[in-house]
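Session log. Operator J.P. requested a structure for one protein chain; no other inputs attached. Running the standard single-chain path with token output.
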Amino acid sequence: MRNKKTKIIILVLLIIFVVLLFVRFIGPEDTWLCQNGEWIKHGNPDRSKPEETLCVNENSKILNILNDYLSKNISDISPEKEVLGGKFYITKLILISNDRAEVEYEDGHIALKADFNFIVKNGVVEIINFKLLSNK
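Structure written below.
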């Protein structure tokens, strides 16, 4: 009876040890993680922060829908127009509330930041009060 309990305890400890090793060595150790719309350094990544990739909170359907819409329409929405043949692209999008956001965008020549209100209804986006905050 005592021998059986010892074997069970050893087996449980072995399983815990294997799980801890798996978590420690298999997970992303030296990389950039997207958390709350910001790139966070994890470990010692061998590359710089992914500036060209928008960090989007994976749990936010609204943010994804808004990002897709702005990526396609920012040139038409912006009161400032592209210069020297550039094409606007989104560099940062921050959801401030359920109906307000900030967007940073550029065309390779000028960088802009704007604040706006929006409505997303049945996957359709409506932008309201798009105001430039600054030229970055």
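Operator note: The beta strands are 31-35, 38-42, 89-97, 100-106, 111-121, 124-135.
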